Amino acid sequence: MNRKRFLEVALVLAFVLSVFFQERCAPEKEVALAPPAQPLWFGLHVLMENKNAAEELLKEIPALARLGINLLIVEVDYNYEYVSHPELRGEDPISKETVMRRESIAGAGALSTPTSTPSFSS
């Protein structure tokens, strides 16, 4: 086989192979994804260090819900008004009434606030 004929056969073979592989590598039809089995969570974790910070957060809960935040994790640590162990209280502790107001406001705005009992509950 002469060189010219070899190049012609090689080009035809390359063309046939490229068409074959291009067809095989074509993307499949789009598959519609099923909605997630569980709802999507868009959460925010905040630390409340005193009663003033808790009051400010209470004012912002409706705005957070409008922004799409649907989970609020509030950490109080030792900034809670412990009754059974008052020695653990911070300087300006958050009262039980403030926590209960947070839950009622959050519930009205379709915001989930999982309640975690402090280590030393009151």
Characterization of this structure:
It is a single chain. The chain has 122 residues and is mostly helical. The chain has a domain at 43-108. Helix content is 42%, strand content 8%. Strands 1-2 form a two-stranded parallel ribbon. α2 packs parallel to α3 (96-108). The relative contact order is 0.15.
Structure described in brief:
With 122 residues, the protein is mainly alpha-helical. The chain has helices at 3-24, 51-66, 96-108, and strands spanning 43-47, 71-75.
Give the helix/strand layout:
Blueprint: H1 3-24, E1 43-47, H2 51-66, E2 71-75, H3 96-108
Helix pairs in contact: 2-3
Radius of gyration: 31 Å
**Residues in helix, %:** 40-55%
Poorly predicted sequence stretches spanning 5 or more consecutive residues? 117-122
Coarse morphology: rod-shaped
The biggest beta sheet is recorded as: 2 strands, parallel
Helices and strands, in order, run as: HEHEH
Give the DSSP E fraction (strand runs of 2 or more residues).
Answer: 5-15%
Which structural class should the secondary elements be placed in?
mainly alpha
* First and last CA, distance: 96 Å
Mean residue pLDDT: 77
Strand order in space, largest sheet = 1-2
Counted beta strands: 2
Structural features:
single chain, 122 residues, mainly alpha, 42% helix
